[in-house]
Amino acid sequence: MSAVLTPDRILKEMADVWRSLGTQGEPDTGMGVLRACSMTLVVIAGPRDEAQALGETIAALMPEHPARAIVIHPEAAAGNLLTGRAFAQCWMPFGQRRQICCEQIEIRASEASLVDAIPVAAAITAPDLPVIVWCRDLRLLERLEFRNVAALATRIVVDTAPSSDPAAAIRLLRQRVSEGVPLGDLSWTRLTRWREMISRLFENRKLPQSVQARVGYSGTSIPVAARYMGAWLADSLQSARGSANLKFEPDSERVELRGDGLHIELTRSGARLHTVVDGIKHCAGLSLATDYGLMQEELRIVGHDPIFERTLSAAAVL
């Protein structure tokens, strides 16, 4: 699109795409095209994202979470670059002869034009459906443009894992949540399997009033995920009318809980989660924490996640 990018131009191009797809079907034989949309997924790419890899992830999400996908690619180009195109993302379910198609819009914007790209995206969201924003550049939360993103979204998903300053990243998220922004963090999503396992171990067990809780981590500084885990453990034990003496240790990724009549250890080894409960060992598989798998889980949540927000507030003051 060489002319000025406007919502009307994008909507017209989408209409042309559907008109073209409509001529390809054969309704009498069941070989038609079904238009599917359950939400708008706005993806703001990060500076290191590869367009092809990101596109493959979005395409993989569509069969379970059909959406009008709007992908904004910030460009390093100087000036006021703002271009876009619309096309269809289609697949054919096994055993069927009819294609299912979703809309996808790609917008490319220079740094100077990013402020203009977001209102364009807001104007072309699917009416009366949730708007999930997957913001792959955490720095955007500190920019003025974020206000437009927050006004647009039913939920915003970020990833604090790459942050070089985990404590600052948590404070930033907490500040945005205190402003009413419904946020999710993939660092928290990566802990789902751990939390499920620990919750099951807590079931039907009388917990001691005082528990020594150790959270191990890899690297030189305590990552966001370890802080979340520590805050969640402390909150869970408090809910069970206990207390946790929490300590972080530069070790492998592990959790250890000790108390009167209690000894639980969970240790990650590759794609395995090794558990020791009172001397009895168990091993379970951990699903690969790909962007696809993590976003599959996050797209099931629309709006605020009260457990995450409570954990975030606790992690900010650890």
Describe the structure.
There is one protein chain. The protein is elongated, with a radius of gyration of 23 Å. Strands 1, 2, 3, 4, 5, 6, 7 and 8 form an eight-stranded mixed beta sheet that branches. Strands 10-9-11-12-13-14 form a six-stranded mixed beta sheet, with helices on one face. It is built from ten helices and 14 strands. Helix 2 packs across helix 9, helix 5 (166-178) packs across helix 10 and helix 8 (224-239) packs across helix 10 (306-315). Strand 12 and strand 13 form a beta hairpin. With 318 residues, it is α/β, with parallel strands linked by helices. The chain has two domains: 7-153, no CATH class; 192-285. 33% of the residues lie in helices and 30% in strands. The N and C termini lie far apart (50 Å). It has helices at 7-22, 51-61, 114-123, 146-152, 166-178, 186-189, 192-202, 224-239, 291-298, 306-315, and strands at 33-35, 39-44, 67-75, 82-91, 99-110, 131-135, 155-158, 183-185, 210-217, 243-250, 254-259, 262-269, 272-277, 280-285. 33% of the residues are buried.
SSE blueprint:
Elements (H helix, E strand, L loop, with lengths): L6 H16 L10 E3 L3 E6 L6 H11 L5 E9 L6 E10 L7 E12 L3 H10 L7 E5 L10 H7 L2 E4 L7 H13 L4 E3 H4 L2 H11 L7 E8 L6 H16 L3 E8 L3 E6 L2 E8 L2 E6 L2 E6 L5 H8 L7 H10 L3
Parallel strand pairs: 1-5, 2-3, 2-6, 3-5, 6-7, 7-8, 9-10
Antiparallel strand pairs: 4-5, 9-11, 11-12, 12-13, 13-14
Helix pairs in contact: 2-9, 5-10, 8-10
